[in-house]
Amino acid sequence: MVADNSSFNLPFVVSGQVNLQKSGVPTSSLMHFLHEFRLAPPQGSSASKIAPEFILGIQEPDTSPHTKVRGLDRRQHLFFDQSAATVRAALFASKSLAMWPVPAFTDGDMATALWKTRRPGLEESAATVRAALFASKSLAMWPVPAFTDGDMATALWKTRRPGLEEVYVASVYLDITAKKIVWPLRLVRLVEHCNNSNSQLLLLMDANSHSPWWGSPEANDRGKIMEELILVHNLAVLNTGSKPTFRNRNTPGTHPDVSLATPTLSDLVSNWRVSDGVVGSDHQMILFHIDLKSAKPPKRRNFHRGDWDTFQSRINDWPRKEPQLWSVPILEEEAQAFTSKLTKVLNTTHPLRRQRHSVSSQKWWSGELNSLHHTMTRLQKTFYKKRSDESHERFKEARRAFKKASRQAKRKSWKSFTEDSTDPKKVAQLIKVVQHQANKSLGLLHDDQGQTLTPEGSMNLLADTHFPGCLPRPLIRPLEPPPAWPLRDIDHPDVSFITAERVTNAVHSFNGYKAPGPDGIPAIVYQKLDDAALSRLTNIFKASVILGYTPAAWRQSNVIYIPKPGKPDYGVARAFRPITLINVVFKFLERVIYWHLQTSVFSTHPLHRNQFGFRKGRSTESALSKLTGIIESAFQNKQFAIGVFLDIQGAFDNARPENILEGLKAKSVPEFLVDWYKHYLCNRSMTASHGGVTIARRFDEGLVHCIGFADDGALVISGPKLHVLASRMQRAINAATDWGALQSLTFSTAKTTAMLFHRKVVPTHPPPLMINGTAVPWSSEVKYLGLTLDPGLTWHLHVTRRTQKARGILIKYRNAIGKIWGSPPKMSKWAYTGVVRPMVSYGCLVWAHAVDRTYTKAALTKLNRLALLSLGHFRRSTPTAGLEVMTLTLPLPLFIKQTAAIAHKRTELMCSNTHYALRPRHSFGHRQVSASFLTNIGFDDFESDSIPTVQSWDRQFVVELCSFASGKPVQEGDLHLFTDGSRLNNASGSGFVALDSKTRKELVSQHFHLKQATVAQCETHAIKRAAHWLASLPGHRSIILFSDSQSTIRALANPMVNSSLLLNTIEALNEAGRHHTVRIRWIKAHAGHDGNELADSLAKQGAADPSKEVTDIPYTPWNLVKSNIQSLVLEYWDSSWSQLTTCRQTKQWFPKIDKAKSKSLLDLGRREISACTQLITGHNFMRRHEAIVAQYDTQEFSEYAECRLCMEDEETSFHIVAECPALQHIRTECFNTLFLPEPVGDWTVAKLLRFLRISPVSNCFGLAVEGELDPSHPW
Description:
The chain is an alpha+beta fold. The chain is about 40% helix and about 15% strand. It is globular. This is Retrovirus-related Pol poly from type-1 retrotransposable element R1.
């Protein structure tokens, strides 16, 4: 292979190891034993003219690579450890490949080199990054990806100096190994770009060259070339003086570092100097001043701190009364006055403060390190003065001491940080740290021709890409107001749905501290307003809708751009995602209108049943179940299915206002709401600011199954004849593109994927489908809604990639902590069950059947094992099943089935018709697989109390939440009703009693038996029955209903209802409220109140009396359905564990699943849980297990495995704790018995730990206390 390279047409790379001595194969035949892969030729080049390039790794004992390998000439590199006595590994490579030897990773058995490629994103490894820029956040710095690589980092600095608004700053490293200095192509392009754009340039270079221009005594060859390049590019040298910038032991002082600038910028630089402030580095720090001003940091309010009491007291003082009739000018004035009032009060209670970016102090820095650093600095200066061997050695010793102390301090600080991860929030932060990826911030973009744009050009390109049709705001003429604005009364029936109650609920439905819009007022400010202020805001909302006008301030928005992860080029606009921040006050009004449309328009004109995005009760799971069901049906009928997965390019960016308005009219949205929304859509404006650049824009007016989720759509068709399916699918694609053209939307051809679903060994694909004149090739895999689909729906690719990604996260997490230090075991388990495992199990409803395959089950089991091994220090042979039982961690295949079963019940109503078979021999589809699993574990299907969320705003009764403050009954009203619910001995009951408010005479009392209802359902049922009784009561009375359940009272006050029992109760109370005045208050339970005690007694009677069973027993709530499935799965797991033939020693302690003991184990520290796990599983460092590991024969095994204490039996953990006669006194002290039975029944984790600590085996399990060890002890 090596000798005859001309037989290959393309450059190739060959890598691998082969033993030449044992194989006896000639070198020219090595190709038969090595893996080969080819390099694609550069674009526009002929493959036949390219010289072959290769890398060859060989392995040969006790021979020199020079003597055995033939066919190599001067065009090849040879890498091996020349100092090693025996070389058994070497690396050969073409010199045309940029290979760098790595001595740190090279010895006689290993040869390593770094290959610098030209592939984008893989040019260099992290070890080859030799240039970087660090800048204060207050400086408006723009990264420039086009002029950045491993040896050069460039940013554009936006300043406030007139005429010098843009300054390019670059940190450059010139390779010292190059014999002839040549400026990198990126650097040349940067200089030319600055010359062409008349921009200023500042270069901070490690030039590795010498010249008198920057302080060297004389110029070398590299320095002379450098001088020519500086002259050619018209740059000025900033270096002054002759103080060396580089010093080491062998070099008294040289000047390899150069600072260059354009002539105009060089006039602003002063006080250039070399500082001795950097200690421990050969290079000295260079400092200089530059007369430029940067943008001022913005001012912000801190809403987490402030005087909210003062805010609430001052906000009530409004300057004037509200108008009776409203017009557009009055609306603008009122909206502005409302915002101004809030801002004025906030200026007092939450003043604006300039944001300061300070460098946080290192937690690991200490006084000891500061002293060592001071000593090292002093000795370094002494060495620079004396230049003697003695001073150098003293400096080196001080530097070693400082570095060692620094490493120890950092390790200690990191250990403290990981051990402090005692709650999920901190563990999530730790996982985020270990998963750290490069931060891709917004920098200068380039256009389609590759030209780097200015900051203003970059911001405009982003606006044009993500907001097509918007125009610069200064170029838009303001709307001409009509000659006379009409006056309208806000008490109009059309806006009667805008009530203070709905506005209050809308205000409190938002996260209080979410990022605000241009006015800088978050939702928390509105949540602190009283009823009077919210009533005023309600009237403003009414006026806005009835006038069909949105105040100008509400139409403004701020736009920020965040990078999309995993993009190859962050110099294009599509690599960033826009986030629009609008004023929260407009979001409140939108929420109120949306709630109204849900109960009115969308109840009669709903969205299409196959649109699953942004809809209550629907999710990606239901969309995937629908899609998979169609494909499974085709497989069951031995047919084909074709799927085309579409993506609308910039779907939300390119949606035209006129098309949106037409859609609203098609759904019969009232005309006045369409007009209101039209005014907003056609008069919006946006502002985007970044790095000192701000732009402002204003928006111009401007049979195939289709399954959609937001802007991701899938077209699926099934049938027996491929050519017919392809023809119909093409017509469906044409119809979709035609619809897109009418809506001004374009389907992305690059993201459109077609797949033929089949179960054939060698399928015959029809001709490619076409979209927008471009052929869509048939794909062997497609990612849709987070799942990777393959033609046979085997889910092999999906499971493999998910588990690989999860393993990567777990390995990073394990590497960040120690075996006996780090996050507590309970939090380490949560890191897996709360972060990693949900990522793996996502969408398992459609692929849960795949876990029964051998490969999938093995991969998932290994993942579970890897996660559990991070809980402490365990032996490698520790059984996975034992670890799962001890930590109460479901086997991952079983957890996948459980999650799929729960998802099956949750999506049952949305996907009830997708019971398709997966394949003939299974005769089950994915939903039937989950249903079958539920049957196998003994789940009894029953009707759930959960319903799709409905809005119930009509309240004929009053819920007094203020009663929570006292909890005492009030002596008001004509009649007092007391309700209660109870659950005793696995049975439930409810009851109510009515008392005369004055005489306290009992008028009526009833109690009911409710079988297995929850306590909350019993409380609600009692209120419902009391309301039914009230509705039948003649006359009109003032009623006060008392309940001791705050959760039930809150649910009655909440307009969003998702329980059929709660909905029926509200309807019953409304009926009672039409005849009487009904108020609901909270009363404290078991506080001696007569009515509450009577109601509690009645509820208990109902629970104990099955003869009082009623017909309106509440259905099972969803949380009980879910917990019931989980309990049955736990029983199924327990049964499987008892039937398992392995894990004998673990079963001696855990004969069955024990939640309490598992919880106690997880509450231990890492050292303690390690000891307990080693003891319980038997995989420890005792003699019997050590003999098994050593694989002794029978005689040696019996001799070595003998107990060192009693010499009577094998030394196992169970023998030591339960049977060893030598430890009877300790066993009696800890377990109150001489011997323990098998399996051990009455034991606790605390008792076991105490035994381990005070027994002689403590050292064997790492629990011995220092100073208490007996050196003469067998252990």
